[in-house]
Amino acid sequence: MRIAIFGTGGVGGYFGGRLAEAGEEVIFIARGEHLQTIQTQGLRVDSVLGDFMVQPAQATDDPAQIGPVDVVLVCVKAWQVAEAAQAILPLVGPETMVVPLQNGVDAPAELAAVLGVDSVVGGLCGLIAFVAGPGHIRHTGIEPFITFGELDNRPSERIERLRRAFTHTKGVLVEVPADIKAAMWRKFLLIATWSGVGAVTQAPIGVLRSVPETREMLEQSLQEIYNVALAHQIALPADVVSQTLAFIDTFPPHGTASMQRDIMAGRPSELASQNGAVVRLGRKVGVATPLHNFIYYSLLPLELRARGEVEFAN
């Protein structure tokens, strides 16, 4: 398959790298020194599952140079999706499948508004990975998984082709779920909780789950998102809160969420697409989300400062 990776950060670099390692034709879309290093030296991936290099690697900052592909994995941050949709247009032909891998649940609709609903499927993924330097991705935890499916849950050949491609990669768990929207909300429940509680406390997950008071925050956050999901007629299992909390207990204790790291570093983050989205989606169906209100409102001044919309000293 011919696969474009739109956004070669921790997610795009890792999954794209594994697909290239497995023999798929992968084109990385990146910028600046990161792009230059990938073009000249290849893409280096250090992983707890084994280090590898993609060398030579195809990479560009201009999607128009690539033309239509079979698959686009959209791996930018959630707040960048609307802008990315316009840049993705040259990659999309009649048979192209666009797979968003953002945290949150808004990306498919944002992409479909520009690219057309027939081009877009649902998707999610999980791993702890980040850009360690130009042309260098580091994967430090969580067994990598990727999940995708048609938004109406029908079987399709394009989904099956991508599933087969991922089955040939090393160490990537791939799934086509019976209900992709429920799967996306299940991930949303996890990541918005980890990100929000982690960002407002500035503590790693090992501390959050072991201190009784912050563990209570984790559980309350999960419950609020579950309540919102049910009101939106998302078919989550009744024990999803306890299951997710048990999954959190398996994370490396030093782990932090990407949104948490962005906020702590003073960078723009996915706050509006995670905890802000819980507040927004809860209001839409009349479900109270007091903890997420607190998290979102507490972090919003930092987010606005990172975006240059307000100024204040530390």
Structure description:
With 314 residues, the protein is α/β, with parallel strands linked by helices. It folds into 2 domains: 2-177, Rossmann fold (3-Layer(aba) Sandwich); 182-306, N-(1-d-carboxylethyl)-l-norvaline Dehydrogenase, domain 2. Helices cover 45% and strands 18% of the residues. It is built from 12 helices and 10 strands. The protein has helices at residues 10-21, 32-41, 81-88, 107-115, 157-167, 180-201, 205-210, 212-231, 240-248, 258-264, 275-285, 290-306; strands at residues 2-6, 25-29, 43-47, 52-54, 58-60, 71-74, 97-100, 122-133, 136-149, 173-175. A 5-stranded parallel beta sheet has the order 5-2-1-6-7, sandwiched between helices. Strands 3, 4, 8, 9 and 10 form a 5-stranded mixed beta sheet that branches. Helix 8 (212-231) crosses helix 9 and helix 8 (212-231) packs across helix 11. It starts with a strand and ends in an 8-residue tail after the last helix. The mean pLDDT is 96.
- Helix fraction bin: 40-55%
Spatially, the strands of the biggest sheet line up as 5-2-1-6-7
**Which value, in Å, is the CA radius of gyration?**
19 Å
Give the class from helix and strand content and strand pairing.
alpha/beta
Tell me the major beta sheet: 5 strands, parallel
- The CA-CA distance between the termini, in Å, is 49 Å
Number of helices: 12
The overall number of domains is 2
The CATH homology group name of the largest domain: NAD(P)-binding Rossmann-like Domain
CATH-defined topology of the largest domain = Rossmann fold
Extract low-pLDDT stretches. none
The appropriate CATH architecture of the largest domain is: 3-Layer(aba) Sandwich
CATH C-level class of the largest domain? Alpha Beta
